UniProtKB/TrEMBL annotation:
PANTHER family: GLUCAN 1,4-ALPHA-GLUCOSIDASE SUSB-RELATED, RETAINING ALPHA-GALACTOSIDASE. It holds the Pfam family GH97_N. GO terms for molecular function: carbohydrate binding; hydrolase activity, acting on glycosyl bonds. Coiled coil: none annotated. Gene3D superfamilies: 2.70.98.10, Aldolase class I, Golgi alpha-mannosidase II. SUPFAM superfamilies: (Trans)glycosidases. This is Glycoside hydrolase family 97 catalytic domain-containing protein. It comes from Halosimplex rubrum. The keyword Cell membrane does not apply. Residues 18-240 form the Glycosyl-hydrolase 97 N-terminal domain.
Amino acid sequence: MRLTGPADANAVVFDPETAELAVERDGTTLVTPSELPVEKLARQLHGVDWTGAAVSVDDPAEVAETYALPKGKARERTHRAVERTVTYDHPDADGVVEVDLRAAAEGVAFRFRVTGTAMQRHTGDETTLSLPRDTATWLTPFDEAHEASARQQPIVETDGEYCTPGLFRVDDEWLLLAEAGADGDYAAARLRAEDSGPGMTFGLPQTQMNAHFPLETPWRVAITGDLADVVESTLVTDLVDDAGFDDEWVEPGRVAWSWWSESDSPDDFERQREYVDYAADRGWEYVLVDAGWPRERAAMPDLIDYATERGIDVILWTHWTDVNTESKRAERLPTWADWGAAGVKVDFMDADDQGRMQFYDDLAEAAADHELLVNFHGSVVPTGLQRRYPHVMTYEGVMGAEYYKWSTVTPEHNCTLPFTRNVVGPMDYTPVTFSADAARTTPGHELALSVVFESALQHFADSVDEYAARPEAEGFLERVPAAWDETRFVGGYPGVEATVARRDGEEWFLGSITAGPQRIVTVDCAFLVEGDAVSDEEWTAHVVRDDGEGGLESEEWTVTGEEALDVVVPENGGFAARFER
């Protein structure tokens, strides 16, 4: 059985009798025939051998969906795919095992659905996908906080466990393995290298899970194509169900944040007022009061009132154990909402098991009841649930700029994230850290991260004094938004360069970052030819780049969509630009 996506590029090849699956893209086999764990699920959940099951395949069905989000790489999204379901029905079982197969324009996905009557304990699907032996990989070693740096290596040299998503190159095609819809009914996966041959298993924590029927596993997702297809993809979010509530109150925004530069400042409300004042002057939307704010004092409502009078909303930090039970949530969330807080930053979950995933669901649902935004820090990698919970604004799940406080973050790491972690969802990297002593990047590189990295709450990590000392950066950060109508990959390669353009209304913003020696970055301006624009229409490009002396300089150039910009970028440098008609 062959299932081909709408653009005729992606195909799932599936044998219902053997449950073997392969993935092809434009004639290149990206996933070689891999036996799906139908038998394992049947044995665990029904106690039967699936080889005795009757197999049926339904007719292909078109999936056509358009939806909107108040945030992310595109506010309006369209999902087109073709889907089929294969059903395994055993006469001795009290339910069936189904495999949903979906082929979309930007990749393929599959999941398992199991029906039954009584709750069962199980260890999950542990799906293994085989890959060609000459596959190159970009994989991030696994840790519970998902805060490591990816490394490039041949798949035959991989060993151990890695964070999702994983990036792979087979010949001239690219493959990103991810998951969608991992929630409290299951556990979050990590990728495990297989000793038996080149391949990756969607491994799960070594704990048993409770299966509440009907059970739907997370989607196992293969995003395929060229690097633009990967970077621009919304497939992970497309596969998740819509929100069940009105999200008009959800507002993305830029956040003034004092903890990175002044870790004792959350307890200093006079200093917090200065951050509020700066955010108000710059037109930023939020201030985050991080770990250390005094719970016993009644000053927080006064600070929130002060901020509200100036048009600034306040987000409050909390440890996850402060809200990990229904009674704690019932006490604290309405109190913070009554104070006027706009949201919470919930920190240090640092686990992927079913119990912790249930916490994510419980907290998101309770926060929605009080119209509180959520930032999950010390967290899993997102799996598209920001569609189900549009007030969940961002996740950490990344080695971000906080690491400058005790080690460093490499330019190569930054130049890999747009092709890996940030593809699957918002990323609370906390960018634009000009004053980091351990930084190997330039100011132009740091400023460009405000565009290259997507997060609906974009926490600018440095102090307000550092931004005020750099008027070129300050002016750019006054204009750059935190949510986008459109995202376009312009150029680059994992670990070497990432140039990304994003549109907000009638303006385009572009960020370019590099790792390695000085070079000329050529920006093809064809992304400007969108909608009602014409190729020879003139745009003004406001470019902020490194001045060669450790500072920044601004320039204005006139361009059209038929032209290219050549920008000289120093070692580990970058630049940011805003385009207006």
